[in-house]
Structure formats: structure tokens, C-alpha cells
Amino acid sequence: MSQHDDCNTLDFTLLKVGIDKILGSIDKSASKQLTNLLGKNYLETNYCYQRPDVLCVLLKMIYGKSYVEMIKSI
Q1: Block mean pLDDT (10 aa), the chain, length 74
Q2: Cα 28 vs. chain centroid, distance in angstroms?
Q3: By Cβ atoms counted within 10 A, which residue in 11, 13, 30, 42 is the most buried?
Q4: Is the dihedral of CA 15, 26, 64, 50 positive or negative?
Q5: What pLDDT, on the 0 to 100 scale, is given for residue 70?
Q6: How far is 15 from 40, CA to CA, in rounded Å?
Q7: Are 33 and 53 in contact (CB under 8 A)?
Q8: Ramachandran bin of 58, using left for φ above 0, alpha for ψ from -120 to 50, beta for the remaining angles
Q9: Given this model, what pLDDT does residue 4 score?
Q10: What is the pLDDT of residue 2?
């Protein structure tokens, strides 16, 4: 495995940990909203790991501008 591959693996692992923390910090109603919004686009929660920008858009839809503070706290 090359050093580049190691960095990509580490980056993905850190990203996954951050996303897990965000998903774990939202309440049940927000989690349900997130699932519903993803479902409307035929997506599952796991898609957020591949496209964290989509998670940001959905959090903004649910929480408004305060979603930025959620991300900063992680």
C-alpha cells in the first residue's frame, strides 16, 4: 500500500468519525427528517459518508445556519 493510499484511508476514517459524531448528536426528530430527505432522493444514510456535502445541505435544511456550529464543534 502506498503512502497516498494510507493518507486516503486516514482521511476517510477521520471523516467517518466526524459524520458519526454529527449523526449521533442530532435528536430523533432531526434524524427522522434526515432519513426522510435522503429517502425522497432514493438515498440512504451511508451516502453521507461518500458525499459529506449532501449531509451539510440536509443539515442546513433542518437546522438553518446553526448547522455550521454543529460541524465546527466536531
Answers
A1: 67 88 92 94 91 93 90 80
A2: 15
A3: 30
A4: positive
A5: 82
A6: 24
A7: no
A8: alpha
A9: 59
A10: 62
The three cell numbers locating residue 59 = 443539515
Find the domain containing 9 and state its range: 3-73
Work out how many domains the chain is built from and give that number: 1
Residue listed under C-alpha cell 456535502 = 53
pLDDT of residue 1: 53
* Distance, CA of 4 to CA of 23 (rounded, Å): 28
What values do phi and psi take at 44, rounded to 5?
-115, 165
10 contacts 17 by C-beta, under 8 angstroms: no
The answer to whether 70 and 59 have CB atoms below 8 angstroms apart is yes
Query: Helix or strand or coil: residue 2?
Result: coil
